[in-house]
Structures are given as structure tokens and as C-alpha cells.
């Protein structure tokens, strides 16, 4: 008999949060994020990743930070956070894709393509094509192909055109790797896990490529502070994004007020180097994120080495949040509890040896 009143209270809380955020246009709502969390929780391919507590001293970050915890998305089965958003995208595929009569296409520098091929091709036997930049690591290309997807490697400036051609001429269904609200809501599950595990969090730091994971985590964390009854209700949690200096799309987009392009990206963080920032993700970042800071490749390598000393194998893109903290580029962290999201660990042994030594 108690289930109905509880369900009613939960619905009232979700409605209150949505009402508070209705002014934010196309951004995902609290209800969207909660629904996506249920999907993610029910998917056996997605893990609730651990929070490595009080890692700051071992990493060598500023002692002014009271506590630094690491959200280890590099421990996901497919090696990165991407599986979260994809699980929710899969739940919302059109019928002609789900029954296998229509091919799916996406674009990816590696991690999204890996999770995409794993879920669609290997797990669900769907037909799919991944358009990748020429500079994508060969080991990632081979892994994606081993799952059953077709890979096309093209110049960075031709990626979007190639996808659009497949959609218009070949009737493929485009599944966007970052600028999609189903995906953003799925990534929001990571933010909810952060506030569940660390309700005293003050600052969250997340990498940014196209902006999907940053948008989802920021939307979830900020909206959770509006929900009465949650431990973070009323807290002033700040969220920062981190991009490589050689691919500063979202940083530039915030300055320009529109999605910026970066066809000549130059960074070891290939996963953070898509040719254009997202339109939806820019709106989320403008709404929920304090700022996007930039890190150098040398700072990314330093972070990879520091994480390795803590037993974490992390790719350059996955180390971006820690890199920003090691380089003292995140403001207002003195005396604060900080969570950095370690987003991926898909690095080949050869590259790991090259970067870490």
C-alpha cells in the first residue's frame, strides 16, 4: 500500500525540478535523466563505476584541495563512459533500425565507435558504419571492425560530409556521438552516481570533446541540487570542462556564442578532437557549466603518468580533468571537495609506453 504514495512523491519531485528548469530550452530535464538512469541501470553492459577516494596526494595535486576523488569511467567494459549514452540511444532507436532493415552510421575518433560497434553490431547484430578521422589510432580501427562494423577513414574536414552523404544517398540513420539528448541524458547517469557517492562534492571536473559527457554530468549534478530530499539539495556545485589547447572547440564556442569548428586539431587527445562542437551540447554548457579550460599535451602526459602511479591506465583524453587540476587551471578549489572524471582507458601498450615510459 505504501508504493503508490512513494511513487506520487517521486513524480512530484521530478515535476518540481522540471518546472524549475523549463526556461532552459532544449536541455535535458530531470525526468529525462532519471529515465535514462533506469535504462543504464538495466543494461548489463554498463557498470556503476567506482569512486577512488582521496587520490589527490598520490597524484600530486595542490594540497589546497581538501579532497580529490576520481570517478573511474576507464573501468567500463568498453573502456570509457561512452557506453552510458549509447545504452540510452539504443533504447530510443526507430523500428526500422532495431529490426535490422536500415543501416546506422556514426562518426568517431575511437571510443564512441568502439561502444557503438560493441552494442549495435556485436550485441544486437545490427548493420553499422563508423566514419573515423585518418589520424584515429589503428588499434581502435581494428577493434571496431572486429565487432562487425564497417570503418571508413577520411580527412577530418570530410567526416561530417561523409556522414551526411550516407544519410541522404544511402538512407542510413545517423546516431550522433555527442549532440543528442538521449545520449546526454544517458551520460547524466554518471553525474547522478557522483552526487550519490560524494554528496559533499563542491567541484566536478570533466573532459570535453564534442561536449556529451560534460553536458550530461553537468545537467545531472546541477539539477540534483534543485531536488528537495536529495543530499545535494541547495548546494552550489561548480562544474568545469577541460579541452586540449590543440582542439579548443567548446572553449571557442563559448566565446563566439555558436558551435565552433576545428578541422586542423593538433593534440594527442584524439578523442577530444571532433571537427565541430555540438549545438545541443553548447546550450547545455552555457546553461550548466562555469567554464571550459585548456590544457597542453605535455600536461596531459603528466596526468597520465600521475594516474599510472595510482594504478590507473588512462588514455590522453581520459586524463584531461586530472591534467587541469595538476596544472592549477581550475579556480576556487581551495578547501573544496573535488571530483575529477577519468573518462577513458583505451590506450595501446605502445602508446602507453611512449607517454608514460
Structure write-up:
- By secondary structure, the chain is of the alpha/beta class.
- Helices cover about 45% and strands about 15% of the residues.
- The protein is built from 15 helices and ten strands.
- The strands form two sheets. The chain has a six-stranded mixed beta sheet with strand order 1-2-10-7-8-9, with helices on both faces. The chain has a four-stranded parallel beta sheet with strand order 5-4-3-6, with helices on both faces.
- β4 (about 130-135), α7 and β5 form a beta-alpha-beta unit.
- The chain is globular and about 55 Å long.
The first-to-last residue Cα distance is 61 Å
Total helical elements: 15
- Give Rg in angstroms: 19 Å
Biggest sheet statistics: 6 strands, mixed
Structural class: alpha/beta
Mean pLDDT: 92
What is the chains' assembly state? single chain
